[in-house]
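User: Can you predict the 3D structure for this chain?
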Amino acid sequence: AVTGMPWSNPQAWLVALYFGSSQFVVYALFAWLAPASNETALTTLPAGVLLGLFTAVFAIASVGAGLIPGKAHDRRGLLGITTVLALIGTAGMAFAPETSPILYVLLVATGLGMSFTVGMTLPLDNSRTPAEAGAWTVFMLFIGYLIAALGPVCFVALRDYTRSYELAYDMLFAVLLFMLCLTPI
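Assistant: Here is the predicted structure, written as structure tokens:
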């Protein structure tokens, strides 16, 4: 049976917003972490190495999250933990960037990598049939990646407007705070 996209389902929108918000932050960091590191010189680690570290930890955390046993159909606890990890790392980037920039990158990459994998399972948790799971997945990815595409643009627009990365990192912190608010729903 053909199943339509869940446009009128509020839970589908929450799933798509969670996924889109996480990828908004990921895309912003993939695009601008290295240039921001070069410009601010908060670490002696070369910008390319810092971005490579972010990417490697993100990938390992993504795979690792798939190995964590959990209760199917209720991943709120795991979503909360992954979001808090990313939130702590982003808080450091936003509010105390000079303290431990490498630790912040590790925390953000771990949290976002894990939330990517867990987020990809949310359509399965909210559907009853394979066709419905497919429709939810298409919906989540469509809306989610539309949101995600705005991440790098918004990040650099704030940087260009303020001539500083401070407000751009504050925005990422706010997006992750929004994600944390979505996790108990």
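The radius of gyration is 17 Å. The CA atoms of residues 47 and 71 lie 39 Å apart.
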